[in-house]
Design a protein that fits this description.
Growth Hormone, Chain: A; 75% helix; 459 residues; mainly alpha; 3 domains; single chain
């Protein structure tokens, strides 16, 4: 935000636009804040309600649901407008919050997270419409800049806030804290959109089947046996639909395929690893709730630092993505080093965060097609790939834990016993698997374009 001129910042939050801008910022903050604040509380929830066997399902449910929610919200925005889209998303998010906050089992927590993730996908779609359709053209880029700052702030304060709420209240507080934020979001939206006309796009079309098939595929992987077998036909159905639709999710060019594959693998390792890192540190190494959330905070900071650094480098897109993804692989593999104190996990995760931030600025322009008019769909494919990777990564990590940790150790974790070296070692094995997946994806970076697609001439 420091790069925004003061005059433009004052105009952005002036009387004419203040309410609608705040509505967009609160929507972004709520959806991104909720993602990380709950992760830090899940180990405590598992000790309270038991059923740790479904830990991966509860941890990955939010990302899986957002894979469906975000693309669907784009079509809904075109049909009923951003205000109604925000209200629908807020309603679903509210129900998910109540379900999660009153849950008595990990299944119910997972159901709440699914609803929150779906509603969060709707909330995240609204700010993009606000910045492009409801702000003066000269303020549009400043809206995106402030929005990015809000994302960074939520990522930094989410994990420690979750840890403090667990320590001072209990794990259910990480759900209930969303309600005041949700009320503020709706209040600013009702004020900001008052008197603003919306013209529906009756013929707007979107690929809804593809995201639903992808979401079902990832959800199937998270479910206990024998349900994961349903993921196979869903994956095949997605591939068939992707080849036959005129609105594919993955950009149909070499760089688009390569970019989405790399984004998928990085999502598997980094975001998928996020779902079990607090469990590994709390139950496996005996860290407190607060200190177990600290690596999430540090990784957010290293992500931000790397993003700022890479903007000053005159490197090709391919080189940036290759170096950044290599750092993610190295950091994730470092998390597998058998150091019982958990220090290797914390340091490796910070390194992975740096790699994610380094590669991110180049992934979006690398995914762009040569045909103008697909910019929104092409860039959203990168986000969808990452979110899908988060669900797959959570499923793989959960599978490793369940298959390698004795049942008695899992029950001990539910009862709050720590440290549990066998659980720590199993988590290290999971991180090693996730890091190997990123490593195997590195040859795909050779297909990424070197320079950004030529911009369309301004008419």
């Amino acid at each position: 935000m420091s790069t925004i001129p003061r005059g433009s910042l004052r105009e952005l939050f002036g009387p004419a636009t203040r309410a609608i801008v705040l509505a967009g910022l609160f929507a972004s903050f709520l959806a991104s804040f909720d993602l990380l604040i709950v992760v830090s509380a899940l180990p405590s929830a598992a000790r309270d309600v038991g059923d740790i066997d479904n830990y991966a399902l509860a941890a990955g449910a939010y990302s899986v649901a957002s894979v469906v929610g975000m693309p669907l919200a784009g079509a809904v925005n075109d049909r009923i407008g951003p205000l109604r889209t925000l209200l629908v998303g807020s309603g679903v998010f509210f129900v998910g919050t109540v379900v999660g906050g009153t849950a008595t089992s990990m299944d119910q927590i997972a159901a709440g997270r699914l609803l929150q993730g779906f509603g969060g996908g709707f909330l995240l779609s609204v700010p993009l419409v606000i910045w492009t359709a409801y702000l003066p053209r000269h303020l549009e880029r400043y809206g995106f800049a402030v929005n990015a700052a809000v994302w960074a702030i939520s990522a930094v304060i989410g994990p420690p806030a979750g840890a403090l709420l667990v320590a001072l209240v209990d794990w259910r507080a990480v759900f209930w804290v969303n309600l005041p934020l949700l009320a503020l979001t709706v209040t600013f939206a009702l004020r900001g959109f008052r008197g603003k006309a919306f013209t529906p796009h009756e013929h707007a079309r979107a690929n809804i089947i593809g995201p639903c098939l992808l979401g079902g595929f990832a959800l199937g992987l998270l479910l206990p046996a024998p349900w994961p077998v349903i993921s196979i036909p869903l994956a095949l159905a997605f591939l068939w639909q992707e080849l036959h639709t005129d609105r594919p999710l993955i950009p149909r060019h070499r760089s688009g395929y390569a970019t989405c594959l790399v984004a998928l693998s990085a999502g598997i390792a980094f975001t998928g690893g996020t779902t079990v890192i607090t469990l590994a540190l709390q139950a496996g190494s005996g860290w407190s709730v607060f200190w177990a959330s600290f690596p999430l905070l540090v990784s957010s900071l290293t992500w931000t630092v790397a993003t700022g650094l890479v903007t000053h480098l005159d490197w090709s897109l391919r080189r940036i993505v290759t170096v950044g993804t290599s750092i993610v692989a190295a950091g994730t593999l470092a998390m597998a080093i058998p150091v019982s104190s958990g220090l290797a996990i914390a340091i490796g995760f910070a390194i992975s965060g740096f790699g994610m931030g380094f590669a991110s600025p180049a992934l979006f322009p690398a995914a762009l097609s040569d045909d103008p008019g697909r910019e929104g769909r092409d860039t959203s494919a990168v986000t969808t790939a990452r979110q899908l990777g988060a669900g797959i990564g959570a499923a793989l990590a959960g599978f490793v834990l369940l298959e390698t940790v004795p049942h008695s150790v899992l029950r001990a974790a539910e009862n709050g016993v720590a440290p549990l070296p066998k659980l720590h070692d199993a988590a290290g094995l999971a991180f090693g698997l996730l890091g190997l997946i990123v490593l195997l994806s590195l040859p795909a970076t050779r297909g990424i374009r070197v320079t950004p697609r030529r911009s369309r001439p301004v008419e």
